[in-house]
Structure formats: structure tokens, C-alpha cells
Amino acid sequence: MGTSGPSGAVLDARDLVREFGVFRAVDGISFQLGSGEVLAVFGPNGAGKTSLLRLLSGELLPTEGSVRIDGDLLSRADQSWRLNLGVLSHDSFLYNHLTAEENLRFYGRLFGLADVSERVQSRLEEVGLWKRRDSRVRTFSRGMRQRLALARALLHDPRVVFLDEPYTGLDAHAAALLNEVLESLKDGDRTVVLVTHNLSKGLMLADRVAIQVRGRFEHLGPRSGVPDNGFEHFYREVVESVEVPA
Amino acid sequence: MRGYLGQLSAIVWKDLVVELRTKERILSMGGFTVLVGVLFNYGLDRSVVRPQDLAAGWIWVTIVFTGVLGLGRTFEMERSEGALRGVLMSPVPRDAIFLAKVLSNFVLTMLAAILVFAIFGLFFDLSFGSHPLVLLAVVATGTLGFTSLGTLYSGVTAGTTMGDTLLPILVFPLLVPMVIYGVTATAGLFAGLPVSEVSGNLRMLMAFALITTFAGAGLFRFIVEE
Amino acid sequence: MQLGRIGISAAILGGLGVLGTLFLHWMVFFWVPTEATMGIVQRIFYIHVPSAWVAFLAFGIVALAGAVYLWLGDERLDQTALAAAEGGMIFTTIVLITGPLWAVIAWGTYWTWEPRLTLTLLLWFIYLGYFLVRRTTENPQAAKRFAAVVGIVGAVNIPLIHVSVLWFRSLHPQPVVLKAEGPTLHPDMLLTLMVGLLSFTLLFLGIFLLRFGVARMEYEIAYREARGAPSPAPSGSPASPAAPSSPPSAGPEAAPSE
Questions:
Q1: Does the ipTM surpass 0.90?
Q2: Residues near C95 by Cβ (< 8 Å), separated by ≥ 6?
Q3: In principle, which of A101, A196, C42, C148 could form an S-S bond with C38, CB 3.0–4.6 Å?
Q4: Do C226 and A46 touch (CB under 8 A)?
């Protein structure tokens, strides 16, 4: 732990390319994130955002290029890098017929955690579900599931967290609750990559902003360089410079 | 190794708890078995054939049919909320995931197999011979190979538009050795043959179980990973 | 786009195979002596046995190419497996047609549980499963991996199936005695069989290469449609600089469900 890669970055993506048969979903993406940095990736449908996230989280292996987390190369050989990353997707990855606590304990055992009970309790308290720990997940609302899914993603205290459209299907109240918890991620020194097409929510969290179109980053820069109220206009300009609107 | 077994048992535990709570597969397999017994009764003229002569074959074919019914749903609960993706993102070796799935499926299919013996024994007044443990070993070994094959292929069919209906077409051709050696051994034991007469069959069933389990453990990652 | 070297090889091998097969039929009908005990129907054996050989050869290629495909991920290996499977399916079907034709005259019944015929029937179903998996898998990339797995698992189980059906046969001897085609074959018959094996192998290789070439072209077309440029991988055809390059802007919104 703590031994960063040669670049000093926690998350280091280099020249990522991923092809599915003849289709090239990710076409040469490179970036580095340090400890505590939050990158928001925006882009239209079919831009390869989800493929990028699946590459970064090791779910897919790149056709070309490499991903390193804390200096460890993501590969199929040694899988210890999996301990350093957590994923929150629009799917909850939860079992409906297990209780909230059972779900977390199950994942705790998969990650080989020593102090499962304490971790489960503190995570459930953080997301405000400790009182509902013995309820089965199928009785949960969409918002509660998403908070429990976040507790699951953070259970093993990963250094890097990937968020894939976490707001999908949440009402305003649930989204606000989720955002509160996500904000607390920034206070720790966690590195976060957030993929979404919800511009306003993404901007709230981000330090850096990328716009992905057709598998490439057409824009990558600090949050501060992005015009606050004109972002939507800027986003559309970037997208339409590459992609003719249908 | 302890970590491996811990992860493996976590998955087995989860599968069995979910099954105990939903009872989906237990109920459908159990009900299927009893009803097949009833139908067989009317598909047979007892004045011409003795059930005892056909029992071994019926039993194995019923185990295969009821087994395929349950195995086809192996990845059902894993898909609903993308849970398998979550499991795959944890540092669990892929073969451990496969073996865990085989084990929980094996428990379920063995329960069904024992029920098949009980129901057929009751309905047709069968005598199971004097070596129940050897019989159990024969059934367990055959079931293990069958379960490995069914678990691997249910991972395949879960990704197709045909779903479970494709499973028998993939699995049945490869079950011929299991049915041949299983039925012959079972019939021999029913008829009171000495154990030495069926030990060769048991060895062939072990070969079947080893081949399918190793092939499954090695190939499973190509089913679930891209 | 042309089939190029693959097409020429396919034409040569397939052509030789067709010529050989015609010659084989001349031998079977006019030249080879009639087998004494089985009579004239035995002549179908010169079609039946070579087809069975090719059916299993093809399945070996399917399993091997599938295994290496899983290892290396090269599309050409998957196309090899597909081409072999389609060729193999044809010859497996020929075995299943000629076997019962022989059986009905030799033994008076269309179907006997002759072990090799049984094994071929099961092989036919394994091929069927292989094609169904390829066709019905929703994710096109997964379809190739799934099919490879089906091919490999089928292949590793075939020896055990073979042993078990032989053993079952020995337990339950059939009323008709089957004389295995032992080493006592008349030299002319042996020669005819050899011509059959050679011609069918050539014919299969021709079909196989042709199908492989078509698969390469399909891939190339899909690639150009998706990327608007020829694929960089050697497509099998000799590099033709005159190949028309479609305008690079013409990329469709192709996005597989990933």
C-alpha cells in the first residue's frame, strides 16, 4: 500500500484501446489521477464511457495500453490490485434475498477482510442503513439499494472508486442523499472516476473534467477551467465538433 | 489455500441461503420428481413388465431431467442486479467461483436424486440391494460430473436468447457415459451383484466427473470474463 | 476484394477433391470387387468411412482452433473453427445418412446402436449445440468464446463417450454379428478406401478453406463498415494497393451492446 507507480499517480491509464471485434470502443485514452482527485467523464451515448470504466476497473483487459493502480498493472495473472478498487454501478450487485448485512458480509469474505463485523457496521452507519441491516434487500427502495451498493463498493476501503451512472433511476431526494455520501469520499484521500451524462451532478463532485466522444477524450482539463454556467454549451460544442447530431 | 476455501464457502453459503429462502428450484425439482413417478406408473403395464427391471434406467433419466431443470437457473439470481459482476470484481479466483457454483448445485441435485430414489422406491416397491453406500457413491459421482457440465453450460445458455431451453441440447450428448455406467451399476446393485462387479463402473464415473470438473474449472473464466 | 491466395488454394484442393471423389465413385461402382459376405451394399462403406474420418478430423480442428482462440484471441482462429465446424457438419450428416442405408440392407433395420454410428450421432448433436450457441448468444464476442468452450468440452468428452458406447455394446450384444473391417481387407478394397480417405480429406480442406475465406471477407466488410478503412491485419489476400478505400468519414453509429 502507498507505494505509488513510477509516475506517482494512483491511477495511471496509458494509451488505452479496446476493440470488440471490428468495433473500437475506446480509442487511445491516457490520463493520470493523484490521491484524492475526482475525474468526471461526460459524453453522449455510445461514446465508450462504460467501456472505459470497465477497462479502468479491470473488468475488461485493454486491446492495447495499460492501467496501473498504485503502481500495480491490471492483469489476469496476479489479481491483488482488485483490493484497491471499488465500483458503484447503476446495477447494485446485491442479492435481493439476502439482508443488507448479509450482502456486505458476503462481499467482505470474498475480499478476505479480517475485521468484517466492524467494517460492515461502520459502512452501514455511514450510509444510514444500520437500522435496516436485517431487512432483505428486495424490500429496499431504489435509493436505499444505491446507498447499500455504495457501502459494498467501499467496504474494503479501496484507494480508487469508480462510479458508473450512479444517479440512474434515483429521485431528487435519493440523489441528494447519495451525493452527501459521495462528497464524503472527497474528504478521504480517495481517487474517484465518475462516468455520467448528468452534467450538473457530475460537476458538483469533479476536480477534473473529461469529455469523451467516439472513444477519445476530446477535452481533459481542470474543473476550474470550465465555465460554470456555460458548461452545457461548451459540452455541446465539443461533442458536435466530432459528431454530427442525428 | 485458506483464503481460497473461505471465498469458495462464502459463495456456497450464499447460494444455499438464497435457495432456502426462495425455494424456487427445490420446489420445482421436487414436484417434478414426484409427478414423473406418477406418470411413469401409468406408462407401464405391470402385467407385462416388472418395474424393478426398468427402475435403474428410469431413475437416472429422471435425475437428468430434474437436474437440468435446476441447473438451468444457476445464474438467474446472479443476473438480476448484476451481482455476478460484483463477484467477478472481487479477488476470488475464477475457478473458485465455478467450483462453488458446482458445489451448491451438487447439493441441490443430490437432494433431488435422493428424492428420485425415495419416490420410485415407494411407488414401485423397489429393493435397492444390500450396498446402499456404494449406491450412494455411484449416484454422487455421476451427479458431480453432471453438475459440473450443467453449471458450465448454464453459464453459456444464460448469455443466449434461447436460455434454459438450449441446456439439454448441449448437455445430453455428453451424458451418455454417465447414464451407461450409472444405470448399469445401479441395476447391478439392485439385482444384488457384489460390489466388485460395479467398481469398474464407479471408476468410469469418476473419470467422467474429473474430466468435466477440470474442464469446467479451466474454461469458466472464458464464459464470464471478456 | 478478392479471395486471393485462400481462394486459389481452396479451388485447387476442392477441385482435386471433386476429381478424386468422381474417380472414387468409378472405383466403387465398376472396379472394386464385391465383398463376399455382405454383398453389394458393402460398397457404401467407401463413402461412409471416409466421411466419418473427416467428421472427426474437422471436430479436432474445431476444438484445437477454439482452444488457441481462447488463448490468443485472434479472430482468424475463430474463423478457422467456424469453417471446420460447418465442413464437419456436412460430413457428419453424410455418415448419418449412409450408415442407416447400409444398415437397412445389411441388417434389416435402419438404426442399430452400432457404437461408431452412435458416437457420430452424438457428434452431430454436439455440432448442433455449437451452431446454436454461436447463433443465439446475444453478445457477438461472447458467442465466439462460448462456441470455443462448447467445442473443447465436446472434444475432451468424446473419448469417454466412445469407450462407454463400446462397452455398452459388449454388454448387450446385438443379434446381428458385426464384422469389424479388420486388416484382412482385400488389397483392391484397401486401395479404394485409401482413395476415398484422400479425396474426402481434400474435398473437406477445399470446403474448409473456402468457408474460411468467406469468413475473412465478412470480417473485412464489417471492419470497413465500422472503421471506414481496410483492416490492418493480413486478410489472407495478397496486399492489393488498388483496393478501394471507402471515405473515412462514413463510419456508422455502430455500437455493440457493451
A1: yes
A2: C48, C51, C52, C55, C117, C120
A3: C42
A4: no
